[in-house]
Amino acid sequence: MKMNLVPVLLIAVPCASAQTILTISEDSFNYAAGSDLGGQSGGTGFTNAWDGGNGTVINAPGLDGVGNKATTSVNFAVSFRTPDPTGFDHLLDGGQFGADDTTIWIGFHSVRSTATNGGYGGFSLFDLGGTERLFVGSPWMTDQWGLQEYPTGTHHLVPNSNVDVPTELVVRIDFQVGVERLRLWLDPLVPNPDGPADIDIPYPELDFESIRIGSGGGSGDELYDFDGLRLETPSSSLGTNYCLSTTNSTGAASAISASGSDSVSANDLVLTANNMPDQPGIFIAGPTSAQIPFFNGFLCMDPNGLQRFSNTAPASGGVITEAVDIPTSAPGGLNVIAGSSYFYQRWFRDPMAGGGNANFSDGIEIVYTP
Q1: What does R_g of the chain's alpha carbons equal in angstroms?
Q2: In whole angstroms, what is the distance from residue 242 CA to residue 18 CA?
Q3: What is the 3-state composition of the chain as percent helix, strand, coil, each rounded to the nearest 5?
């Protein structure tokens, strides 16, 4: 990263210290039309490829405006995949998602593509033992969108909903002590809603490790389309965002967030930056904040004392996450001291934007504790 200041036109977007949404996993099914879903490994935030997807094919066009879609092509076709928990230790309870006082949104687009006289189609959560714990979609023989509880099999339906019309379903799970809170929205106005919902219920204690999409009918092929699958969580609000980020070639401004802890002895801080082109970049750090026009954005720390991380890996799907190791992340180790602030930011190449051909996220301040 050269340190020559470049005069460029900047469109500044203030990045508030309000809640940041982090992507755990996502897949827009942007695979070749006509191919099987089984063995496909696109998207981000998964530990494996789609498993058991040979009864599910990729068709065009998609439902979410990006890429194609997955369509169950035979009766009772199911496909499994496992979200990657790396960087989300605070969400885990015994190695599974579901720690108390955490929140996860699950969103996907779906529509019934071939109907019989009743069946099911939707998305499920499974625990480490392979037991289904929650179903979101159209439960068995209902022909409406809703939820199905496990192990009771109780249905919670959205009255007058229509599974033959493309719909975005978003469920929010608030993991609580004893009983969870589940809310379901159909076609919400915002990606991560938190208001009056179409369904709002208490739910038995829930943990999950893997996900499944699938469909089936009692007397013939009950087939569904799926697209725009995402699992997201609010940031743990560790640190304070500051400085400005400018719009890059993705059409958005990159934001940085932190999870883990601010403890020097624990040494478990994790940085995540989003809304970036999938280009090489680095995290940078320093003891003094600033706001200096640089490349197509702002350098949010004083160049004196600035440290560059060694990892130059590109973002994937616009997101990159890196664990901070105080002794090794930057050559010579990071100069952090308990009781003082240290500042972090992401720099990334952006050749499609022109100008300085690179940009930055906003900055985040971490006040370290022992």
Answers
A1: 22
A2: 11
A3: 0, 45, 50
Tell me, what's the pLDDT at 15? 39
Architecture of 12-18+237-367 per CATH? Sandwich (2.60)
Q: How confident is the model at residue 237, as a pLDDT?
A: 64
Which residues lie closer than 8 Å to 354 by C-beta, 6 or more apart? Answer: none
pLDDT at residue number 259 = 84
Arithmetic mean of pLDDT, 318-340: 93
Q: How confident is the model at residue 261 (pLDDT cuts 50, 70, 90)?
A: confident
∠ CA 291-293-295, nearest 5°, is 130
Q: Residue 129: name the closest of 109, 150, 103 by CA.
A: 150
Please state, in angstroms and rounded to a whole number, the distance separating the CA atoms of residues 15 and 29.
Answer: 31
CA–CA dist 318, 323 (Å, integer):
17
| pLDDT for res 260 | 82
- Residue 8: what pLDDT? 36
Bridge partner list, 183:
172, 200
Domain spanning 21-234, CATH architecture: Sandwich (2.60)
Closest to 239 in 3D by CA, of 365, 346, 87:
365
Beta 199-204 vs 210-217: how paired, if at all? unpaired
3-state SS class at 173:
strand
Q: State the Cα–Cα distance between residues 212 and 52, nearest whole angstrom.
A: 10
Over the stretch 168-210, which tens digit does the pLDDT of each residue have? 999 999 999 989 999 999 999 999 999 899 999 999 999 999 9
Sign of the Cα pseudo-torsion (205, 208, 214, 220, in order): negative
* CA-based nearest residue to 103, from 183, 215, 32: 183
CB atoms within 10 A of CB 228: 20
Instruction: Kindly report whether the peptide bond that precedes residue 196 is cis, defined as omega within 30 degrees of 0.
Output: no
Joined together, the tokens standing for residue 143 give 């022909």
Q: Where are the domains of the chain?
A: 12-18+237-367, 21-234
